[in-house]
Records
---
Amino acid sequence: MDIIYARGEATAAEVQEALEDPPSYSAVRALLRILEEKGALKHREEGVRYIYSPTEAREKVSRSALRKVLHTFFEGSLANAVAALVDARDGKISPDELKRLEVVIKQARKP
């Protein structure tokens, strides 16, 4: 999905070429087909090639996926998820990231 979002659209061959240590062409095609069946991708035909593109904006999809991760792994708790992310970084957060988090928290506190 990252490759298709970055390019806007791509064929299976283009996706395969862009992957580091890529799986077989057949495996890439199978994955694209599954993503299409799940509604994440659509395709148009150009000759014998299928050109895939996302069905929704990356931001909308990423928010939906994040909600699912929060629900599945963190009992819906944003605080638990953030704590796990901070722990995974051994508590090391850059000054820029801390400033960004402070802004987000201040905005969330506003009525």
---
Amino acid sequence: MAWSKTKIKTKQGEFVEAQAPVIISASRSTDIPAFYSDWLVERVKQGYLKWKNPFNGVPSYVSFANARLIVFWTKNPKLMIRHLAFLMKV
């Protein structure tokens, strides 16, 4: 099953196609909650993020428009806990 797609407007004003998953599994290879929680919250506020595939270097966009659940994988949730109130109301 393919992810649904949507068009988003980037910070630079460019319209691009973005994946719009319902469930996002975050930080399996990088511990986002432990090291990049502030970055992730800013990206959620912006409504999208740009992701570069580590295997082929091709950039992709991910929209949070359809997201209903973000699964975090971490050994240290301490820094992410301060953002829980914001994430719960998004």
---
Amino acid sequence: MPQEKRPKKLLDQMRDVLHTQHDSIRTEAAYVDWAKRCMLFHQKRHPKDMGRVEIEACLTHLAVDRHVAASTQNQALSALLFLSKAVLHKNLSRGLP
């Protein structure tokens, strides 16, 4: 009986898309890390079940509680929008900073 091939995990899918777009290894690592951090911030919720409100909450946490620089917050936003658009095929960019 042939084994069914399990679909790749979300972060592996994200790595694949970044790799096929020829992004640098450092960009790949940073984007995957931001996606992971956001999922952990939301108690391991899957990003497909998150929307604009959850992304805004994660970014607000970075700015208010973690006191990150604006450029760091922008990188996190870019990573989360990339995950939504390129991997999950959801468009969340309307209304985000």
---
Amino acid sequence: MKGKDRAELRSEAHHLSPSVHVGQHGLTPALIGALDDALRTRELVKVRLGNKDEIKPKDAANSLAIATNSAVVQVIGRTATLFRENPDIDKKRGDMPSWRK
């Protein structure tokens, strides 16, 4: 992903609220499945990482990105933003992106 693309996605993600929350059990298969579903429908997803994790936020975001075959857009504090393009979503010129709907 190029820097310009990443900057555009960061600006789009600013207004999103976290849709996936990592709980006390950490990075479980159920959490990865929920994140995978969210990425499939919205493409751009914010993830709120738990406060009690002993793993660093950047490491947790990278682990989630590898598990879901997505890209880390940014990590700020304990909130990570991930992106994965879905070729099955019909995109027409001038339409709003799937994460704005």
